[in-house]
Design goal:
Layout: E1 3-10, H1 20-35, E2 38-47, H2 58-68, E3 77-80, H3 83-86, H4 91-103, E4 107-110, E5 116-118, H5 126-162, E6 177-181, E7 184-187, H6 189-203, H7 208-218, H8 233-241, E8 249-250, E9 257-258, H9 268-283, E10 308-316, E11 322-330, H10 331-334, E12 344-346, H11 347-357, H12 365-389
Helix pairs in contact: 4-5, 6-9
Amino acid sequence: MTIAHSYSRFSHQNQADGDSFRRQIQATKDCCKRNGWKLSNQRYHDAGKSGFKGDQQKQLGRLLDFIRDGKIAAGDILIVENIDRLSRKGIRATQGLFNEILDAGIEVVILSPTEMKFTASDSDDISQAIILATMAYQANQYSLNLSQRVKAANSKKRKDWVDGKTVKVSPILPAWIEETGPGKLKVRKEAAKVIRYIFKRTVDGVGRKTLVRELNEKFKPIASRRNTTGWNEQYLKNLITTRRVLGDAVSTVTGEEFEGIYPPVIDERTWKAANAASKRRTSQRGPSAKRVNLFAGVLFHAKDQCPMHFTSYSQKRADGTRKQYHRYRAKKHVNGLKNASSATVDVTTFEHLVFEFLPEMKLGKRKRDRFKEKMDELAAVQNQIREMEN
């Protein structure tokens, strides 16, 4: 039986509350039922990711890797609701993506505006080439026009604020601000307490890793996202560097700064002191500075379903010398989340095991070439480290 694979995407997280994902999946199931195909249990779904700017579609990239490695076999089918789910980057980029999939022997089925199947054998068909180029062009133009309309709307909001016609530049308020009435904003008391604690500890020289653990033990997250499981370093970094805690707003479109938009939660002196302390810590080399993490971004904890974090520390021996230790820990445990696994793995032992059994692993040619390239880069970096030490 022919195996079909589903890829779905929507651009904004607020669409998660709507019908976009359910509609795309249901249309895929109906298509498989009509054609007698078996829908794979493995789904590829990019939520809140743009098909127009940057390389945000991580699940699409994962799907392409599976095709290149042969995990998705020739003869299988890829189903998408519309061509713009795959790409909105224009004719050339979209055709290149299609050709890569088709050349691997995978057929592509587009469900809307009308159901169409694209195959490698039909890729030289002038009518299909025109249809594909037309849909790619329309998807790209839609995104361009939408981007221009959003910029125009934001420009009007800024002008209305300058002219005193509105009290909000953005409908999305910071997590520590609440609206008590039309045009009336105030700082949430509990949120203000947490933010002042964060800035005080940062000024005192406490690092983000330690501070994340303290916050997860003492305070609930103030972020308004429903999927927030706890405090993390990236949120702390954004919180400390943003001027919104001072009451200011910065346009993500033009970079313009607007003072006095929100009630301030801390003063300027504290904000500057915290940022200076944070920069000082960033410039200091820790115990892991000389150790390269070979598996950064590719190791995940099987139980906690989170990245494995590279940690380094030293212990003093009886003879007065200090020994360095490098271990992998679950990111949730590093952040001090409750019920997180505390098991750790020695980095050196793990690396030796991987390299010992690596020849037995079936890696695609692209993976092998990339691995060799990274190993060459590692050797060059290690040589530079030795030269600097000498």
